[in-house]
Write a structure and sequence with these properties.
Elements: H1 4-11, H2 20-23, H3 30-35, E1 37-41, H4 56-59, H5 66-75, H6 97-106, E2 111-117, H7 143-153, E3 157-162, H8 167-170, H9 211-228, E4 232-235, H10 245-262, E5 267-270, E6 281-285, E7 297-302, H11 319-331, E8 334-340, H12 350-366, E9 380-381, E10 402-407, E11 410-415, E12 423-426, E13 444-449, E14 457-461, E15 464-468, E16 478-484
Parallel strand pairs: 1-2, 1-8, 2-3, 3-4, 4-5, 5-6, 6-7, 7-8
Antiparallel strand pairs: 9-10, 10-11, 11-16, 12-15, 13-16, 14-15
Length: 485
């Protein structure tokens, strides 16, 4: 049985303690820095209505929202058919954890985050704290447990995310009119606590989450840790609220100490400075840093522009756009976490499968410049610049936009847009008589383009390293491997 006293005992047993001073000793798992590319999976009850995005459970109760009108037109009155009534429809009859694991491995990913509980409060795992979970309802199978087994069988690192914090207010709009969300509500109810929604940027917004809710959040997260032993945890945005600070430090110390018991380093991915810098992994949603960072970080983005879960109106990204994201991130000392959204029945959409296969095919050729690489002395060159921050627009790159990584004796130059004339110029490798001016003084021994078997020649002069590959034909970024003496 989970108790506050038991949590505090583990949190204080060392090597960590529940304060930022101690948690600042956090050490990044070695495998994470080497992995570079992971998969996020948003699959849950919201995948059944499959309308607009994964916030359906909130938006269907907002009276001027498209989801509200859609819900009434499709399912009827909110008093007769509420969000909970999707549960019997969530049968996951085509779910195959082994197939998922093989597809993700073939895509070249090294780790996977499954959403264990989204804002809607429906748990994708077996829980002793709530009956509203996939073992007791809906699919009636332990989705998270099956995925853990399948992923680890393919040597994929198993990770999990919790979005429970936002449940404090996520169903609150349903109390503004006649619906199936109504008082009295008590702990244990599916929709509880359904409080008024705050400004999501307000760090001190009222009403503050109650002690009862905070303890419930803590207990659910501890249960997730102990039952499934994820190698990383991911928290969505609302844990930066002031009310979570004490519980978050307690939870982090508990988790990191559990990791020490298991004999492996674990970590927490967080947004918006919810945790003190240095106590976990900095996360950026749908964005990047403009320059290489001295700390390791991760960006999470989706395979589509408009949703994290499967819907019937998905706006998919091009595979090249996703590869651009991956290259930008790894050149700046980070990892890319790419989200896919299975259908409500558990099948993976054909377009997702195609994109993942194309990424995997590209990584099979170019992965040596990706996995286990490090940033070079500069992240890249070229006219196209990105802006630091979340939710940044996609850039249009040119053949002059080049990003760098380094590993062993080789510098890898990623040409983001393959040149149509077969000519590449890397200006950062220019020669100069003035030893104080150029960025590079090393001796180039060999130049190759990964996966390219045509004619290739190269020269090095005051303008840069000039590569000619007249037979080059690629729709995706190319990677020049420059081996040094």
């Amino acid at each position: 049985m989970i108790t506050i006293e038991g949590i505090k005992q583990v949190a204080n047993q060392g090597p960590y303690a529940p304060n930022w001073q101690s948690l600042g000793n956090f050490e990044l798992p070695h495998w994470f820095r080497q992995a570079k590319f992971g998969i996020f999976i948003h699959w849950g009850l919201y995948s059944v209505p499959a309308f607009n995005n994964e916030w359906y459970s909130r938006n269907m109760y907002i009276q001027d929202h498209p989801e509200f009108a859609h819900h009434v037109a499709t399912y009827g009155s909110h008093t007769e058919f509420g969000y909970k009534d999707f549960i019997p429809m969530f049968t996951a009859e085509k779910f195959d954890a082994i197939q998922w694991a093989q597809m993700i491995k073939d895509a070249g990913a090294k780790y996977v985050f499954q959403v264990a509980e989204h804002h809607d409060g429906f748990q994708m795992y077996q829980s002793d704290l709530s009956k509203w979970n996939v073992v007791e309802m809906g699919p009636k199978q332990d989705i998270l447990g099956e995925l853990k087994t399948a992923f680890e069988a393919e040597d994929l690192h198993f990770c999990a995310s919790s979005h429970r914090a936002e449940h404090w207010f996520f169903m609150g709009h349903g109390q503004e009119f006649e619906s199936d969300i109504k008082e009295p509500m008590v702990k244990g109810d599916f929709y509880w606590p359904a409080q008024p929604e705050p400004d999501n940027q307000a760090l001190y917004s009222e009403p503050y989450p109650s002690q009862e809710f905070l303890d419930d959040w803590l207990f659910r997260t501890v249960e997730l840790i102990d039952k499934y032993q994820p190698e990383l945890l991911y928290f969505d945005w609302w844990i930066q609220h002031d009310a979570f600070k004490a519980h978050l430090q307690l939870l982090a110390a508990y988790y990191y100490n559990r990791g020490a018991e298991w004999g492996r380093k674990v970590g927490i991915c967080y947004k918006h400075d919810a945790m003190m810098f240095g106590s976990g992994i900095v996360e950026i949603e749908r964005g990047k840093f403009a320059d290489a960072q001295p700390f390791y970080w991760q960006t999470d983005t989706a395979i589509t522009h408009n949703s994290w879960c499967y819907t019937t109106n998905l706006d998919y990204k091009a595979t090249k756009e996703i590869l651009h994201d991956l290259i930008e991130v790894i050149s700046k000392n980070g990892n890319l976490l790419l989200n896919v959204g299975p259908k409500g029945d558990g099948s993976i959409p054909d377009t997702d499968q195609r994109i993942l296969k194309e990424i995997g095919d590209w990584l099979n050729i170019n992965g040596e410049g990706v996995y286990e690489s490090k940033p070079w002395r500069k992240a890249g060159e070229g006219p196209t610049k990105v802006v630091s921050g979340q939710f940044q627009n996609t850039k249009r790159y040119t053949s002059e936009d080049i990003r760098f990584t380094v590993k062993g004796e080789a510098l890898y130059a990623f040409v983001l847009e393959a040149p149509t004339d077969g000519k590449v110029k890397i200006r950062s490798l220019a020669e100069s008589a003035d030893q104080n001016l150029p960025e590079f003084h090393g001796i180039v021994d060999l130049v190759e383009i990964l996966g390219y078997t045509g004619d290739l020649s190269w020269t090095k002069d005051a303008s840069g390293l000039n590569i000619s590959c007249p037979e080059l034909d690629s729709n995706f970024p190319i990677v020049c491997k420059i081996t040094m003496k």
